[in-house]
């Protein structure tokens, strides 16, 4: 029987600078052979180190992705980097709609949609992040917010059953707080996301990951859940020891 793929994605945010990212990538490349091919590993470094990190990790089967893109290819958009430019630099994936983009940089659902379309048009795989704030959860609006974010990003897209789209359920209150979402509740939210996407009748190959204070101590609680295809890890992915432990845990579960 074909084994299920497990997705372990590392969002390095702005935690590692150019030298640190490259040192990490080299160190990681030396141990990556311990990880089976059923474990799909992708790192999202800052933009300046992405190319050299990709050169080192690409050779050992690890993907690289952008943390954010601009939707137009070229032009007078000071400070922006387009999906096309990331693709040319070797990116296969891109995050889109990460909560730090939505809440620190005021990115709207409309902008997320434009970015997602740009990523797809370059034949990259989007990692669409959705999640509710603490206030939205407290007031019973979590499910509705997720539905709004999903519908505005995905409605009406014409894709095909082979097109991979990754959705990361990342509750805002769990990002970088050490307060991870209970695994049973994450599983419920994943089932909800799967149901909404099914209702939208978009032909695509959807995978759903959990993100929010995942570390080596709690990762297995998520990975054993049926509706959870993997994890998107922030803080704990930028420290080599915790990252290595997370991958070893995934590897152990994969071997079972
Ligand atoms: C993230 O930023 O995508 C994330 C999951 O962060 P953390 O693991 O640090 O909560």
Automatic annotation (TrEMBL):
GO terms for biological process: gluconeogenesis; glyceraldehyde-3-phosphate biosynthetic process; glycerol catabolic process; glycolytic process. The keyword Aminoacyl-tRNA synthetase does not apply. It is an enzyme of class 5 (isomerase). It is found in: Cytoplasm. The active site is at 98 (electrophile), 170 (proton acceptor). Pathway: Carbohydrate degradation; glycolysis; D-glyceraldehyde 3-phosphate from glycerone phosphate: step 1/1; Carbohydrate biosynthesis; gluconeogenesis. GO terms for cellular component: cytosol. SUPFAM superfamilies: Triosephosphate isomerase (TIM). Substrate binds at residues 11-13, 176, 213, 234-235. It comes from the Bacteria. It catalyses: D-glyceraldehyde 3-phosphate = dihydroxyacetone phosphate. InterPro entries: Aldolase_TIM, TIM_sf, TrioseP_Isoase_bac/euk, Triosephosphate_isomerase, Triosephosphate_isomerase_AS. GO terms for molecular function: triose-phosphate isomerase activity. Keywords: Cytoplasm, Gluconeogenesis, Glycolysis, Isomerase. Pfam families: TIM (PF00121). Its EC number is 5.3.1.1. Involved in the gluconeogenesis. Catalyzes stereospecifically the conversion of dihydroxyacetone phosphate (DHAP) to D-glyceraldehyde-3-phosphate (G3P). Homodimer. Belongs to the triosephosphate isomerase family. NCBIfam families: tim (TIGR00419). This is Triosephosphate isomerase.
């Amino acid at each position: 029987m074909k084994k299920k793929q497990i997705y372990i994605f590392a969002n390095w945010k702005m935690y590692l600078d150019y030298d640190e990212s490259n040192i990490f990538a080299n160190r990681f490349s030396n141990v990556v052979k311990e990880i089976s091919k059923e474990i799909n590993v992708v790192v999202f470094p800052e933009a300046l180190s992405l190319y050299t990190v990709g050169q080192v990790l690409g050779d050992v089967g690890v993907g690289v992705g952008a943390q954010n893109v601009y939707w137009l290819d070229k032009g007078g958009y000071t400070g922006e980097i387009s999906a096309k430019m990331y693709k040319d630099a070797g990116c296969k994936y891109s995050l889109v709609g990460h909560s730090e983009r939505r809440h620190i940089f005021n990115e709207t659902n409309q902008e997320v949609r434009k970015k997602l379309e740009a990523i797809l048009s370059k034949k990259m795989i989007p990692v669409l992040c959705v999640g509710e704030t603490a206030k939205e959860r407290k007031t019973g609006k979590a499910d509705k917010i997720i539905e709004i974010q999903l519908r505005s990003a995905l409605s009406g897209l014409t894709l095909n059953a082979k097109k991979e789209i990754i959705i990361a359920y990342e509750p805002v209150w769990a990002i970088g707080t050490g307060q991870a979402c209970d695994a049973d509740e994450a599983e419920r939210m994943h089932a909800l996301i799967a149901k909404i996407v099914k209702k939208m009748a978009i032909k695509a190959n959807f995978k759903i990951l959990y993100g929010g204070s995942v570390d080596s101590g709690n990762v297995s609680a998520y990975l054993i859940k049926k509706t959870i295809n993997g994890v998107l890890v922030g803080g704990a992915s930028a420290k080599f020891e915790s990252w290595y432990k997370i991958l070893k845990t995934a590897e152990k579960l994969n071997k079972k």
